[in-house]
Structure prediction request, 239 residues.
Amino acid sequence: MMRIITPAWPVFRVRAFTSLRTGGVSAGPYASLNLASHVGDEPRHVAANRAALCREAGIEGAPLWLNQVHGRVIVDAGASFAGVPEADGSFTTTAGAVCAVLTADCLPVVLADLMGHCVAVVHAGWRGLAAGVIEAGVAALPVSPSRLVAWLGPAIGAADYEVGDEVRQAFGEEARAAFTMAASGRYYADLYALARLRLRGAGVAAVYGGGLSTFSDPDLFSYRRTPVCGRMATLAWIA
Prediction:
């Protein structure tokens, strides 16, 4: 049975969710609803999983899948592309155009205005956060940031995400509270706290979600837990 996580937020007309790993046809470390074509899974299984996801969600056509590179490029989900665009997020103001990102520890962030006139989804690992992918997503939408609402989908939790000092240094002193010292001498990084900090700096005050950990939840894919694994998808569109 296919299951999803949906935002509890006060946004009209926008549908958004993150898939869980159950309800697909993939096997082994990709079991069962792997939606990524770049991780070594059988292409026919990925295609079947994507088709089933769209069918269950009532999506006509296909989401705009991306070649994610941990950068800050945001593309228009309603545009035409010769191939798979290299980007870490997409936006739309067109009903029915579906934004999508794939994750397995990185943080998916959905942005939408309260009346549902525009929506964006960004892929925010620590590199993307440091590069400004959230700020780029906010800037791509044609409304004031004060009118936007954000939802933080499932990501690796702070207690499970150990990083080196170079990660802490990438965010500067203003983000020091998002890092705590680990017994190893490294740091635990709180992606949710880092995202909230970046959203607040970009002018987005209303933030929902957060608090899950892909690493500790067997219903979610986690690259840190199992380096060979599938990917969940976070989709959002104007209904």
